[in-house]
Amino acid sequence: MDIYLLEAIINGLLLGGVLALLSLGLNLIFGVIDVVWICYAEVVMAAMYAVFWLYTFYGWPLLLACAAAIVFATVLGLLVHIVVIEPILGSAPINQLLATGGVLFFLQSLATLLFGTDFRNLGIRLPVLELGGIFISFSRLIAFGIALVGAVGLFLFLSRTYLGTAVRAIAQDREVMGLMGVNERRIYVLTSAIGSGLAGLAACLLVLQYDVHPFIGLTFGPITFMVCVLGGLGNMIGGFIAAFIISQIIAVGGYYFPIEAAEVLAFVFFIVLILIRPQGILGK
Amino acid sequence: MGKTTRRSVLKYSAATAALAAAGPLAGTRAWAQAASSPIRIGVLYDLTGPFTGAGSVPGSIGTQIAIDLINERGGILGKHKIEPIKGDAQSKADVALNEAERLMSQEKLDVILGIYASPEAIPLSEKMEQAKKILWITIAVATKVLKGKNLHYTFRPGVTADLYGAAAIGFLKDHAKAQLKIDLKKLKCAIIHEDGPYGSDTGAADALHAKEVGIPIVLDEAYSATTSDLSSLVTKLKRANADVILHTGYNPDITLFLRQAREAGLKFKMLIGHGAGYGQRDKLKQAFGTDLDYFLNVDPVAAQNLKPGTLKPELEQLVKVMVERYKKVSGNESVPPHVSMGFNQTWVFLQNVLPKAITKYGGTDAEAIRKAALDVDIPEGGTIQGYGVKFEPPGSEQAGQNLRAAACVTQAHGDVEAIVWPDKLKTANAVMPLPKSNPYAA
User: Fold this and answer.
1) Is B226 exposed, middle or buried (0-12, 13-18, 19+ CB in 10 A)?
2) How many A-B residue pairs are in contact by the CB < 8 A criterion?
3) pLDDT at residue number B17
4) Is B70 part of a structural domain of the chain?
5) Can you give the pLDDT at residue B1?
6) Could you say which of A97, B8, B104, B286 has the lowest number of CB atoms within 10 Å?
7) Which chain A residues are within 8 Å of B286, Cβ to Cβ?
8) What is the residue-averaged pLDDT of chain B?
9) For the residues A60-86, what does the mean pLDDT come to?
10) Which has the minimum average pLDDT: A23-27, A72-76, B4-8?
């Protein structure tokens, strides 16, 4: 096989890891609470800033800064849920969408106000891995590995724990579970905390690969949303599979065609598949 | 209410007719009577959004410094202070258009000055043409803003994308054979650029000028500036095995590309950036340390980088003040070329256009400013960026474009941004190919 094609396929796999990690939390929240967090990528952005400030300004060790950023994202997500989502849980979906859209602009503007519009980065240059003439991005390899661990961990939590079972039960039928005495509110809060904690985890990995600025969410937000819809909004395994399909189309398509055409190809694939299966790959 | 009689109507009509007949004169007189009235101009830059980090904010600071300096000297002709009415285009063309509408219709302004991004400059110049109001572009470089449009109300004292291409290829023509030991006809060049008007026009200019001198282009590809992944592009560049990469981008696409290029082991003999993100050396240094030392960049001259003695003493003094103030306002030690662009283009407008519009054409309305702008004739060496100013007149290929604008090629030599091309401005010899110690060096 052409070594460059192999490199493109590996790049696609690694990009898929990044997208899969981003889609995990968003899918979990939608699957359980039934509200689309359009502002999800902005929570990621806020957590990226947290890593940046703690690491570069306060000199915290990177791992400690990352742990703190995950806690920060979790708290931020809880705030978003309690202040914005909870009061409108019974509203029409369009109102919920507009409300989380409002949070998106709020977080962008707040970041601009607090940190300015400068592009900031950790200045960390991770080692480069070379295997048989193929170069592999170390930071993406870590993201890929953690996405896999995150997905497995989330799967085990949902399938093997009491709380996870409650989360799944609420996702299946929120009205009946309420009648059976399950505290829906507590499950929603837990779900928001886990979902936004995953955003914090994604932020820790993205901050190694991308500059932080108030609008970084625009780079990931639309494609993450596309991945979730393609996989079946709310279906975590579907989102995981969709992340790798889209990333391979972008990477391998970009190898054979102009990279802009590859992105068009990914969107064409998305549109065609949604026309055939409006519920997404694994959606019901 | 007074009774309307035939006599009063006649008296009023006669007075109105007299006023109409004396219209132009009355206007001039009214202007003269408003002895110290401020001149209000719109200033429109991207103060939020992705373009801010690629030079828009430094450009806006340059403009403000020029306005402050003029006001401290008493204003235009020593009596009319400049009152900037600011707008934020938010790095979006539709917002730029809305802000322009606000500045024109609500603020009643005849001039909008600024504009960093070419995707905003293109629709804006057409809007201003329809409204017959002045657009004074300080930074946006896309050639198609003016080329073939025959615009009467848009002026650009700065450079075009075409001049970027001419400078990059001009440099290679003069240096490639001697320093890379490769004949131009065998020099493998790759052109990569963001897909907006700025990147597309600059990439097209690179390709055109390369073709003129016989440099083969092994890859010519566009990408979206907001993309999340450029690894496929890097792989294709590795496959093409280019000697020289000509790159036009904003930021953070440039940092994304360079980071992925390093991780993927992309090697080349030289990379030539084309302004915008590459003009922000301090930002690149934060991310890459010394890895980007000796990378080349094409841009209009950053005035502070000119050899001492190149400019007249009064211009050198102006540059000194501009640099001091920029450092104080921004808190940055590095002064990107966009500061000079914002300052210089504004300075020309305030110093060479407005005074003449008032004294020769009777005011500061769009028509008077347009005529005054067409009269401007600054010889080479007459501005802080080293070039002169003479606008192409209406009816010509690039009406409104400064015929005397020029770009130069610079190279990062440690903390010094040395000018390495053209020879007449050179402050150091170009280092090429990249030293072996550079992680990108082939």
Assistant:
1) middle
2) 116
3) 43
4) yes
5) 37
6) B8
7) 120-121, 123
8) 90
9) 96
10) B4-8
CB of B255 within 8 Å of any CB in chain A? yes
CATH, range A3-121+132-276: 1.10.3470
Q: Indicate yes or no: CB of A211 within 8 angstroms of CB of B223.
A: no
Rounded average pLDDT over B291-305: 93
Residues sharing a CB contact under 8 Å with residue B155, sequence separation 6 or more, in sequence order:
B134, B135, B136, B137, B373, B391, B400, B402
* Neighbouring-strand partners of residue B401: B156
In this structure, what token pair is assigned to residue B70?
């003029």
Chain A residues within an 8 Å CB radius of B289: 123, 125
**Residues B212, B152 share a domain:** no
Q: Does B55 touch chain A (CB under 8 A)?
A: no
Number of domains, chain B: 2
Which whole number is the average pLDDT over B49-60? 86
Interface check for B57 against chain A (CB to CB < 8 A): the answer is yes
The minimal CB distance from B236 to the residues A123, A128, A255 is found for A255
Q: Match 């742990």 to its residue by tokens.
A: A67
- Other beta carbons within 10 angstroms of residue B297's beta carbon come to 29
> Which is nearest to B60 in space by CA: B360, B399, B326, B315?
B326
A244 reaches B (C-beta below 8 A)? no
B112 by DSSP, 3-state: which? strand
- pLDDT value of residue B5: 43
Over 50: is that where the pLDDT of B24 sits?
A: no
Q: Helix crossing, A162-172 with A138-160: angle to 10°?
A: 80
With CB atoms and an 8 Å threshold, state whether B252 touches A211.
yes
Q: Is B285 on the interface with A (CB under 8 A)?
A: no
Same domain, B190 and B294: yes
Q: Considering CB atoms only, which of A11, A18, A119 is closest to B235?
A: A11
**Residue A137 sits at the chain B interface (C-beta within 8 Å):** yes
B118: part of which helix (H) or strand (E)? helix B118-131
The verdict on B332 touching A (C-beta cutoff 8 Å) is no
Write down the mean pLDDT value for chain A: 90
State whether B211 and B354 are in the same domain: no
Give the pLDDT band of residue B35 (cuts 50, 70, 90): low
A203-227: per-residue pLDDT in tens?
A: 999 998 898 999 899 888 989 999 9
* Minimal-distance CA residue of chain A relative to B91: A215
In the prediction, which pLDDT does B31 show? 53
Please check whether residues B81 and B186 belong to one and the same domain.
no
CB contact under 8 A, A260 and B224: yes
B126 and B234 in a single domain? The answer is no
Task: Please provide the size of chain A in residues.
Answer: 284
Q: Give me the residue from A126, A215, A253 closest to B50, CB to CB.
A: A215
The domain of B52 spans 39-159+310-375
Q: Chain A within 8 Å of B238 (Cβ-Cβ)?
A: yes
B260: nearest CA in chain A?
A: A137
Whether residue B284 is found in the same domain as residue B341:
no
Give the pLDDT confidence score for residue A242 in this predicted structure: 94
- B155 and B46 housed in the same domain: yes
Query: Are A123 and B262 a contacting pair at CB < 8 A?
Result: no
B421 in a structural domain: yes
**Looking at the partner chain, which of A118, A219, A247 has a beta carbon nearest the beta carbon of B226?**
A219
pLDDT at B33 over 90: no
Domain boundaries, chain A: 3-121+132-276
The torsion angles phi and psi of B86, rounded to 5 degrees, stand at -95, 150
CA-nearest of B128, B177, B176, B179 to B155 is B128
**Residue (of B406, B178, B169, B439) closest to B294 by Cα position:** B439
Interface test with A, best of B46, B220, B232, B255 (most A CBs within 10 A): B232
Between CA B19 and CA B13 the distance in angstroms is: 10
Q: What is the CATH number of the domain that holds B361?
A: 3.40.50.2300
Q: What is the reported pLDDT for A170?
A: 83
Which residue in B53, B239, B286 is closest to A123 by CB distance?
A: B286
